[in-house]
Amino acid sequence: MAAQAMQFAAGGDAQGGIVALALTKAPEVARLGTAVPLPATMHKPLRQRMVLLRSAGPWQPSSTRGCRRSPRARSSCATASRCPASRSTAMDWTALRLSLALAAVTLAVLLPLGVVAGRWLATTRSRGSRGSRR
Amino acid sequence: MTALPLVLPPTVVGYYLLVALGAQSPLGPAFERLFGAPLAFTFTGLVVASVIVNVPFAVQPLQRAFAAIPPDVREAAQCCGLSRWQSFARIELPLAWPGVLSAAVLTFAHTLGEFGVVLMVGGSIPGETKTIAIAIYDRVQAFDTAGAGAMALLLLVVSFVTVALSYVLSERWLKPARR
Protein backbone atom coordinates (compact mmCIF):
# COMPACT_ATOMS: atom_id res chain seq x y z
CA MET A 1 0.00 0.00 0.00
CA ALA A 2 2.75 2.39 0.97
CA ALA A 3 4.53 1.74 -2.29
CA GLN A 4 1.31 2.30 -4.28
CA ALA A 5 0.87 5.72 -2.64
CA MET A 6 4.50 6.48 -3.36
CA GLN A 7 4.06 5.52 -7.03
CA PHE A 8 1.02 7.78 -7.28
CA ALA A 9 2.73 10.73 -5.63
CA ALA A 10 6.08 10.39 -7.38
CA GLY A 11 4.76 9.40 -10.78
CA GLY A 12 3.47 12.89 -11.47
CA ASP A 13 -0.21 11.95 -11.11
CA ALA A 14 -0.44 13.99 -7.92
CA GLN A 15 1.41 17.08 -6.84
CA GLY A 16 2.30 15.56 -3.51
CA GLY A 17 1.39 12.86 -1.08
CA ILE A 18 1.77 11.59 2.46
CA VAL A 19 4.00 8.55 2.25
CA ALA A 20 6.28 6.57 4.52
CA LEU A 21 9.39 8.52 5.41
CA ALA A 22 11.52 5.43 4.92
CA LEU A 23 10.47 5.21 1.27
CA THR A 24 11.56 8.77 0.55
CA LYS A 25 15.05 7.89 1.77
CA ALA A 26 15.53 5.20 -0.85
CA PRO A 27 17.97 6.41 -3.49
CA GLU A 28 15.57 5.63 -6.35
CA VAL A 29 12.94 7.87 -4.79
CA ALA A 30 15.10 10.63 -3.31
CA ARG A 31 15.96 12.07 -6.70
CA LEU A 32 12.33 12.30 -7.82
CA GLY A 33 11.38 15.23 -5.61
CA THR A 34 11.62 16.77 -2.19
CA ALA A 35 10.34 15.26 1.01
CA VAL A 36 9.52 16.96 4.29
CA PRO A 37 9.05 14.81 7.39
CA LEU A 38 5.71 15.39 9.15
CA PRO A 39 6.14 16.31 12.81
CA ALA A 40 5.42 13.36 15.07
CA THR A 41 2.79 15.43 16.89
CA MET A 42 0.60 15.39 13.77
CA HIS A 43 -0.03 11.65 13.77
CA LYS A 44 -0.50 8.76 16.12
CA PRO A 45 2.65 6.81 16.95
CA LEU A 46 3.37 4.14 14.35
CA ARG A 47 3.52 0.69 15.88
CA GLN A 48 5.04 -2.28 14.13
CA ARG A 49 4.35 -5.84 15.10
CA MET A 50 5.71 -9.20 14.17
CA VAL A 51 4.59 -12.76 14.71
CA LEU A 52 6.90 -15.69 15.33
CA LEU A 53 5.62 -19.14 14.44
CA ARG A 54 6.75 -22.34 16.09
CA SER A 55 7.04 -24.01 12.69
CA ALA A 56 9.12 -21.21 11.23
CA GLY A 57 12.45 -22.05 9.68
CA PRO A 58 15.82 -20.86 10.97
CA TRP A 59 16.25 -17.12 11.41
CA GLN A 60 18.06 -15.55 8.48
CA PRO A 61 19.76 -12.49 9.83
CA SER A 62 21.44 -11.55 6.58
CA SER A 63 18.23 -10.85 4.69
CA THR A 64 16.07 -9.04 7.20
CA ARG A 65 18.26 -7.80 10.03
CA GLY A 66 17.72 -4.20 10.88
CA CYS A 67 15.33 -3.54 8.04
CA ARG A 68 12.01 -3.78 9.82
CA ARG A 69 12.65 -2.92 13.41
CA SER A 70 11.78 0.73 13.23
CA PRO A 71 11.20 3.37 10.58
CA ARG A 72 14.53 4.91 11.43
CA ALA A 73 16.35 1.61 11.15
CA ARG A 74 14.57 0.94 7.89
CA SER A 75 15.36 4.33 6.43
CA SER A 76 19.02 4.14 7.39
CA CYS A 77 19.05 0.69 5.94
CA ALA A 78 17.41 1.89 2.74
CA THR A 79 19.89 4.69 2.29
CA ALA A 80 22.70 2.25 2.75
CA SER A 81 21.06 0.05 0.07
CA ARG A 82 21.22 -2.96 2.29
CA CYS A 83 17.51 -3.70 2.37
CA PRO A 84 16.42 -6.46 -0.01
CA ALA A 85 13.62 -4.22 -1.31
CA SER A 86 15.86 -1.38 -2.33
CA ARG A 87 18.70 -3.43 -3.72
CA SER A 88 18.64 -3.11 -7.46
CA THR A 89 19.92 -5.93 -9.59
CA ALA A 90 18.80 -6.01 -13.18
CA MET A 91 17.39 -9.51 -13.29
CA ASP A 92 15.80 -11.73 -10.66
CA TRP A 93 17.11 -15.11 -11.83
CA THR A 94 15.76 -16.87 -8.75
CA ALA A 95 12.24 -15.75 -9.63
CA LEU A 96 12.68 -16.81 -13.24
CA ARG A 97 14.00 -20.20 -12.23
CA LEU A 98 11.08 -20.58 -9.83
CA SER A 99 8.57 -19.68 -12.54
CA LEU A 100 10.10 -22.15 -15.00
CA ALA A 101 10.15 -24.87 -12.33
CA LEU A 102 6.53 -24.18 -11.47
CA ALA A 103 5.51 -24.29 -15.13
CA ALA A 104 7.44 -27.52 -15.71
CA VAL A 105 6.06 -29.31 -12.64
CA THR A 106 2.53 -28.13 -13.43
CA LEU A 107 2.91 -29.43 -16.94
CA ALA A 108 4.28 -32.78 -15.77
CA VAL A 109 1.33 -33.25 -13.39
CA LEU A 110 -1.42 -31.80 -15.53
CA LEU A 111 -0.68 -33.14 -19.00
CA PRO A 112 -1.21 -36.87 -18.22
CA LEU A 113 -4.31 -35.97 -16.19
CA GLY A 114 -5.50 -33.75 -19.04
CA VAL A 115 -5.04 -36.51 -21.61
CA VAL A 116 -7.09 -38.94 -19.50
CA ALA A 117 -9.77 -36.35 -18.66
CA GLY A 118 -9.90 -34.97 -22.19
CA ARG A 119 -10.31 -38.39 -23.74
CA TRP A 120 -12.91 -39.35 -21.18
CA LEU A 121 -14.91 -36.15 -21.80
CA ALA A 122 -14.63 -36.61 -25.55
CA THR A 123 -15.83 -40.18 -25.56
CA THR A 124 -18.68 -40.02 -23.07
CA ARG A 125 -22.06 -39.17 -24.49
CA SER A 126 -23.29 -36.59 -21.98
CA ARG A 127 -21.27 -33.78 -23.53
CA GLY A 128 -22.88 -34.19 -26.93
CA SER A 129 -19.50 -34.71 -28.47
CA ARG A 130 -18.84 -36.55 -31.67
CA GLY A 131 -17.38 -39.28 -29.52
CA SER A 132 -18.15 -42.96 -29.32
CA ARG A 133 -21.48 -44.48 -30.12
CA ARG A 134 -20.73 -47.41 -27.89
CA MET B 1 -16.67 -27.64 -14.35
CA THR B 2 -13.46 -27.64 -16.37
CA ALA B 3 -14.28 -24.17 -17.71
CA LEU B 4 -14.94 -22.61 -14.32
CA PRO B 5 -11.36 -21.49 -13.55
CA LEU B 6 -11.39 -19.79 -16.95
CA VAL B 7 -14.09 -17.28 -16.05
CA LEU B 8 -13.49 -16.88 -12.30
CA PRO B 9 -11.32 -13.91 -11.30
CA PRO B 10 -7.88 -15.20 -10.29
CA THR B 11 -8.11 -13.61 -6.87
CA VAL B 12 -11.36 -15.48 -6.24
CA VAL B 13 -9.79 -18.79 -7.23
CA GLY B 14 -6.76 -17.88 -5.14
CA TYR B 15 -8.85 -17.01 -2.13
CA TYR B 16 -10.76 -20.28 -2.18
CA LEU B 17 -7.57 -22.25 -2.74
CA LEU B 18 -5.90 -20.45 0.16
CA VAL B 19 -8.86 -21.28 2.38
CA ALA B 20 -8.87 -24.87 1.14
CA LEU B 21 -5.13 -25.42 1.57
CA GLY B 22 -4.68 -23.38 4.75
CA ALA B 23 -4.30 -24.47 8.34
CA GLN B 24 -8.02 -23.99 9.11
CA SER B 25 -9.25 -26.52 6.56
CA PRO B 26 -8.95 -30.29 6.94
CA LEU B 27 -6.76 -30.54 3.84
CA GLY B 28 -3.86 -28.33 4.95
CA PRO B 29 -3.03 -30.02 8.27
CA ALA B 30 -3.62 -33.48 6.76
CA PHE B 31 -1.04 -32.77 4.08
CA GLU B 32 1.33 -31.39 6.69
CA ARG B 33 1.00 -34.53 8.80
CA LEU B 34 1.64 -36.72 5.76
CA PHE B 35 4.57 -34.86 4.21
CA GLY B 36 5.86 -32.71 7.04
CA ALA B 37 5.37 -29.41 5.22
CA PRO B 38 2.38 -27.10 4.91
CA LEU B 39 0.69 -26.31 1.58
CA ALA B 40 -0.19 -22.64 1.87
CA PHE B 41 2.71 -20.28 1.09
CA THR B 42 4.95 -23.08 -0.19
CA PHE B 43 6.09 -24.19 -3.63
CA THR B 44 4.08 -27.41 -3.31
CA GLY B 45 0.96 -25.37 -2.62
CA LEU B 46 1.71 -23.28 -5.69
CA VAL B 47 1.93 -26.42 -7.80
CA VAL B 48 -1.43 -27.63 -6.49
CA ALA B 49 -3.04 -24.25 -7.19
CA SER B 50 -1.39 -23.97 -10.57
CA VAL B 51 -2.58 -27.43 -11.62
CA ILE B 52 -6.17 -26.59 -10.64
CA VAL B 53 -6.15 -23.21 -12.33
CA ASN B 54 -4.71 -24.66 -15.54
CA VAL B 55 -7.25 -27.47 -15.88
CA PRO B 56 -9.26 -25.70 -18.61
CA PHE B 57 -6.14 -24.76 -20.54
CA ALA B 58 -5.01 -28.38 -20.61
CA VAL B 59 -8.28 -30.29 -20.82
CA GLN B 60 -10.17 -28.30 -23.43
CA PRO B 61 -7.65 -28.59 -26.32
CA LEU B 62 -7.21 -32.28 -25.47
CA GLN B 63 -10.94 -32.88 -25.33
CA ARG B 64 -11.39 -31.21 -28.71
CA ALA B 65 -8.50 -33.19 -30.18
CA PHE B 66 -9.89 -36.53 -28.98
CA ALA B 67 -13.43 -35.60 -30.05
CA ALA B 68 -12.15 -34.83 -33.56
CA ILE B 69 -11.01 -38.42 -34.01
CA PRO B 70 -13.80 -40.21 -35.88
CA PRO B 71 -15.27 -43.12 -33.89
CA ASP B 72 -14.73 -45.33 -36.95
CA VAL B 73 -10.99 -45.06 -36.44
CA ARG B 74 -11.32 -46.33 -32.89
CA GLU B 75 -13.60 -49.14 -33.99
CA ALA B 76 -11.29 -50.07 -36.84
CA ALA B 77 -8.39 -50.27 -34.38
CA GLN B 78 -10.40 -52.61 -32.20
CA CYS B 79 -11.36 -54.71 -35.23
CA CYS B 80 -7.67 -55.04 -36.03
CA GLY B 81 -7.21 -56.74 -32.69
CA LEU B 82 -5.62 -53.86 -30.81
CA SER B 83 -6.47 -53.69 -27.14
CA ARG B 84 -7.99 -50.49 -25.80
CA TRP B 85 -4.64 -49.41 -24.41
CA GLN B 86 -2.80 -50.20 -27.65
CA SER B 87 -5.39 -48.33 -29.67
CA PHE B 88 -5.06 -45.38 -27.33
CA ALA B 89 -1.27 -45.30 -27.38
CA ARG B 90 -0.70 -46.08 -31.06
CA ILE B 91 -3.72 -44.59 -32.83
CA GLU B 92 -5.49 -41.97 -30.73
CA LEU B 93 -2.57 -40.27 -29.01
CA PRO B 94 -0.62 -39.65 -32.24
CA LEU B 95 -3.79 -38.26 -33.86
CA ALA B 96 -4.45 -36.02 -30.87
CA TRP B 97 -0.84 -34.85 -30.78
CA PRO B 98 -1.56 -31.23 -31.89
CA GLY B 99 -4.04 -31.02 -29.01
CA VAL B 100 -1.42 -32.29 -26.58
CA LEU B 101 1.01 -29.71 -27.89
CA SER B 102 -1.37 -26.78 -27.61
CA ALA B 103 -2.44 -27.92 -24.13
CA ALA B 104 1.22 -27.98 -23.09
CA VAL B 105 1.97 -24.56 -24.58
CA LEU B 106 -1.13 -22.95 -23.07
CA THR B 107 -0.45 -24.43 -19.64
CA PHE B 108 3.22 -23.49 -19.69
CA ALA B 109 2.65 -19.92 -20.85
CA HIS B 110 -0.28 -19.38 -18.52
CA THR B 111 1.70 -20.64 -15.51
CA LEU B 112 4.60 -18.31 -16.31
CA GLY B 113 2.28 -15.32 -16.32
CA GLU B 114 -0.10 -16.24 -13.51
CA PHE B 115 -0.22 -13.47 -10.93
CA GLY B 116 -3.38 -13.33 -8.84
CA VAL B 117 -3.56 -16.96 -7.78
CA VAL B 118 0.18 -17.18 -7.12
CA LEU B 119 0.10 -14.07 -4.97
CA MET B 120 -2.92 -15.27 -2.99
CA VAL B 121 -1.74 -18.83 -2.38
CA GLY B 122 2.01 -18.30 -2.29
CA GLY B 123 2.50 -14.82 -0.98
CA SER B 124 5.73 -13.44 -2.33
CA ILE B 125 8.49 -15.34 -0.59
CA PRO B 126 11.82 -14.98 -2.45
CA GLY B 127 13.17 -18.34 -3.60
CA GLU B 128 10.00 -20.18 -2.57
CA THR B 129 6.91 -18.60 -4.10
CA LYS B 130 8.03 -15.34 -5.68
CA THR B 131 7.59 -16.01 -9.38
CA ILE B 132 8.79 -13.74 -12.17
CA ALA B 133 5.39 -12.12 -12.67
CA ILE B 134 5.36 -11.06 -9.02
CA ALA B 135 9.01 -10.02 -9.17
CA ILE B 136 8.15 -7.63 -12.02
CA TYR B 137 5.38 -6.07 -9.95
CA ASP B 138 7.71 -5.78 -6.95
CA ARG B 139 10.34 -4.03 -9.05
CA VAL B 140 7.84 -1.49 -10.34
CA GLN B 141 6.73 -0.86 -6.76
CA ALA B 142 10.36 -0.35 -5.76
CA PHE B 143 10.88 2.18 -8.60
CA ASP B 144 13.30 -0.22 -10.26
CA THR B 145 11.95 0.27 -13.77
CA ALA B 146 15.20 -0.97 -15.32
CA GLY B 147 14.87 -4.33 -13.54
CA ALA B 148 11.14 -4.56 -14.28
CA GLY B 149 11.76 -3.70 -17.91
CA ALA B 150 14.50 -6.30 -18.24
CA MET B 151 12.35 -9.04 -16.73
CA ALA B 152 9.26 -8.07 -18.72
CA LEU B 153 11.32 -8.17 -21.90
CA LEU B 154 12.69 -11.58 -20.97
CA LEU B 155 9.17 -12.88 -20.36
CA LEU B 156 8.09 -11.45 -23.71
CA VAL B 157 10.96 -13.25 -25.43
CA VAL B 158 10.20 -16.53 -23.61
CA SER B 159 6.53 -16.27 -24.60
CA PHE B 160 7.43 -15.49 -28.19
CA VAL B 161 9.82 -18.43 -28.39
CA THR B 162 7.19 -20.73 -26.83
CA VAL B 163 4.54 -19.74 -29.37
CA ALA B 164 6.97 -19.90 -32.30
CA LEU B 165 8.19 -23.31 -31.18
CA SER B 166 4.65 -24.62 -30.90
CA TYR B 167 3.83 -23.41 -34.42
CA VAL B 168 6.93 -25.04 -35.85
CA LEU B 169 6.32 -28.31 -34.00
CA SER B 170 2.62 -28.49 -34.86
CA GLU B 171 3.39 -27.78 -38.52
CA ARG B 172 5.82 -30.65 -38.54
CA TRP B 173 3.43 -33.05 -36.86
CA LEU B 174 0.23 -31.86 -38.45
CA LYS B 175 1.29 -32.30 -42.05
CA PRO B 176 1.68 -36.08 -42.05
CA ALA B 177 -1.40 -36.40 -39.85
CA ARG B 178 -3.59 -34.45 -42.27
CA ARG B 179 -2.79 -36.48 -45.32
Structural notes for this entry:
The complex is a heterodimer of chains A (134) and B (179). Chain A has six helices and no strands. By secondary structure, chain A is an all-alpha fold. Chain A is elongated. Chain A starts with a helix and ends in an 11-residue tail after the last helix. Chain B contains eleven helices and no strands. Chain B has helices spanning 4-7, 10-21, 27-35, 43-53, 55-67, 71-79, 84-95, 97-113, 116-122, 132-141, 145-178. The mean pLDDT of chain B is 87. The chains are: A mainly alpha (134), B mainly alpha (179). The interface between A and B is large, with 50 and 58 residues.
Output the radius of gyration of chain A: 25 Å
- Number of discrete helical segments of chain A: 6
Q: Count of DSSP helices of chain B?
A: 11
Oligomer: heterodimer
How would you sum up the global shape of chain B? globular
What fraction strand of chain B?
under 5%
- The ordered string of helix (H) and strand (E) elements of chain A is HHHHHH
Of all chain pairs, the largest interface belongs to: A-B, 50 and 58 residues
Biggest sheet character of chain A? none
Overall mean pLDDT of chain A: 73
Mean pLDDT of chain B: 87
- Topology pattern of chain B, helix = H, strand = E: HHHHHHHHHHH
Unreliable segments of 5+ consecutive residues of chain B: none
N- and C-termini, Cα separation of chain A: 59 Å
Which structural category fits the helices and strands of chain B?
A: mainly alpha
